[in-house]
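Structure ticket #2291
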Amino acid sequence: MRASIMNFSEVFKLSNQLCKFSPNGKYLASCVQYRLVIRDVNTLQILQLYTCLDQIQHVGWSADSMFILCAMYKRGIVQVWSLEQPDWHCKIDEGSAGLVSSCWSPDGRHILNTTEFHLRITLWSLSAKSVSYIKYPKACQKGMAFTSNGQHMALAERRDCKDYISIFVCNDWRLLRHFETDTQDLTGIDWAPNGCVLAVWDTCLEYKVLLYSLDGRLLSSYSAYEWSLGIKSVAWSPSSQFLTIGSYDEKVRILNHVTWKPIKELVHAATISNTKTMVYREVDKCQSVEPSQLTFPPPRGTPSSLFTVHSKYELVEGPVTLRTIKPDTDRANPELGIGMLAFSPDNRYLATKNDNMPCCVWIWDIQKMRLSVVLEQTSPVRTFHWDPVQPRLAICTGNSKVYLWSPTSCVSVQVPVEGTFNVLSLAWHPLGEDSLLLMSKDHLCICYLETEEDH
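Resolution: structure written out below.
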């Protein structure tokens, strides 16, 4: 991140961190209780203001950015709005069946509503104004997955105490394949980005990953160990060449797409002794610093008094012992093992979080299959996301700062607003565009990154 300048927008109200860029990157939708606000991404001017029947609990864009749905789960209602025709709107009422989730199909003209107790999925067509039903959807962590080209949907089902997968063709919703899976209690499914292989994984009590082809053939099965808590997270590489499995034993296993066997185990050790691994530790500083000393100059037009940073990164000489917590293994979902996995868009880096070292982000060089960088924060990491275009990682820890890592540097920047703005979640602009959405409990703002070459 060459001599960058970070500008911040003004702050806007927000409810429940319900804020999303449109897929085409032109609009920003945010919810304030029962109101839906659509802004122009470049000017942040309000383009449309819609009023819903109740407090909004979920918001979702259609893939073509022409429609947006707002789900009110308590009322069992979904309202759909059109950006091109502001007077057009649609209301879907699931009635006594209730509603627990709602999403778009890839064509942006069908809505899939899952009813309470996962009794069925209701498939509503906006164009044909018709409705159809899919029975037996399984209540699990990730039970529905679309291929990235939008042609197929896989759905996890539970019938007669057994797990099944149904694969549908999305253009006419005909059933392509239906097969039983060799799982005790299926927990999640995910397509490879190329849409050729479906990964299916079992409950954390049974270490098992199954890989199926589009026509339902079992390509391979993998289990790392038995009689202990197993799989916690799964992620495909953007190239579909690797499937990474994060486990409760604090390791990431990387399977290759040829043999579906592990080619590397990434160990998250509490002590970093390899001199090739860079460890950046966030350190708190009590005194204020002059704006001229900051890694980033303050935003233009912002009073410098708002921009006093009280933390920075220091490069720590090894060996380094990282802070760990002792998880309570008697409780459900213990803070143990690999809870987060994410690949950079160029397949070069993998970011991970080991939950019993909650303040650390691990960045692995996948070309060299080794640990490249560890960032140790002062507070537990809430989330991290890669820029969709370049290898640049944004991190938040629930304080008033945003953290950025790139292969050339890492920085900590205070969000320069009056009052408190604790960053609870963040999202990159879908086209990269050097802008980052930051969300606190009740507010949002946009952070703009520019290099000095842009001036």
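Closing remark: The radius of gyration is 23 Å.
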